[in-house]
Amino acid sequence: MDSTVESVYSILSELNLPATLENLRNPTEAFMIHIISEFLQRFQIDVAAIKRTTLEQNSALRVTNPENAIIVSLINLREVMCIIGNEIFLKDFSINDFTSPGTKRTRTHLKFIANFALYARNARTNMQQRINEVLTRGQYIDDVRKKKQSIIEVINKNASEVANNKVNNENLKSNIEVIQKNIEIRKCEANKLDGNYKISDEKRLNTIERYQAKCAELKKLKEISEHLKNKVVKEPESFKLRLQELEEECNSKKEKRTSVQEAIQSKKPMIQNLENALAFVRKQRTKLPEVIDLQIKLIECNQMNESLKRQIEEATHLIDLEANRDREDEEKVTVKEVKKCEMQCEEKLNKLRSIHNELLAEKKALERKLMNYEAQEVELCIERDNIRGKIVELEAKINQFLRQCQELCNNKIKDMEMAHENAEEQMQLMN
């Protein structure tokens, strides 16, 4: 390997590393620290962080001497260069290469470092397109991850909405159960009211039948009353006076008849004496027309008495009719009470009908509300199934994309490993 000052300087100049021919001929500690730091910074390595002492080193410096901090920084740089040297075939880098660098050794080390920098630059140029593709893929993966995260958030949001909808559905189901229980209770009440209504309706029909029967009887009684009114005399007082007069006359005639009979009975003993009787007959013959007249009058009085009895019976019948009429008036009052009861029953029935109609309307409203709740539940279930299907599709696409990304990364890593192995082989061939 050509390690002359000019060849090393040309490579360092090509890489724009801070080096002069004088530095290469007579290397110093400051030059080595500066050029190694510049080399590390070319590969985005934080030199300041490397030079800072760790907590253990600070503790050790407190025990020894704080002025040894510079040596600690050089030790840290040497450790980093040893790690890097193992990768670029620079395996004998020591602390003396910083503190007291030798010319030949320094040129050899800088030659390895410069060759690696050239190789890295050329490899970076050759791999820039692939690196850009990898970076683009990485950016795409980040975008996909962000999109996946947003999708997961949407899924979680939808899941929370579905859970809330489930809770709402459960609440709606419990409310529906309560409403159904209330409906059953209202149905029982409505059935009871229907039973009471039927009983009341039967009572009403029975009352109407009785009322119609009473009306028929009342109509018949009215017809009888009208018929009797036509027969009843308009002035019963005069007939009562006439009846009294006839009764007095009848009584007087009865008294006369009894007196005549007593007289006849008193004269019977005298019949024994025929002569006396004949004489008496002769004497009384002149009075015979009067007796005949009295007998005729007695017969007439009996007939009149019979007619008076009939009139009394008719008057009694009229009085009974008047009493029946009073009873009819009472029945009219009863009919009024029946009508009043019917009106009260009708009012109660109207109230029961209105309550029944309200319960039916409430039942229909609750049934409509139940149907709406069931329709909403069906829509929510359909939407939930659609969301689940979309989630499954997205997860399948994401998994497929991640597999493709993983395969691509694995292929890129294999390519880089193969390129690294090829570079090592080339370096070995160059050595």
From TrEMBL:
Q: Keywords of this protein's UniProt record, alphabetized?
A: Cell cycle, Cell division, Centromere, Chromosome, Coiled coil, Mitosis
Keyword Electron transport in record? no
Limits of the Kinetochore protein Nuf2 N-terminal domain: 5-133
Q: What is this protein called?
A: Kinetochore protein Nuf2 N-terminal domain-containing protein
Which parts of the chain are coiled coil? 162-263, 298-325, 349-426
The entry sums up its family as follows: Belongs to the NUF2 family.
Q: Which domain of life is it from?
A: Eukaryota
What GO biological process, any one, is recorded here? cell division
Report the InterPro entries cross-referenced here.
Kinetochore_Nuf2_N, Nuf2_N_sf
- One Pfam family name from the record? Nuf2
Q: Where mainly located?
A: nucleus
Q: Where in the cell is it found?
A: Chromosome, Centromere
Query: Looking at the UniProt record for this protein, which Gene Ontology cellular component terms does it annotate, in alphabetical order?
Result: Ndc80 complex
Source organism per UniProt: Microctonus aethiopoides
- Keyword Amino-acid biosynthesis in annotation: no
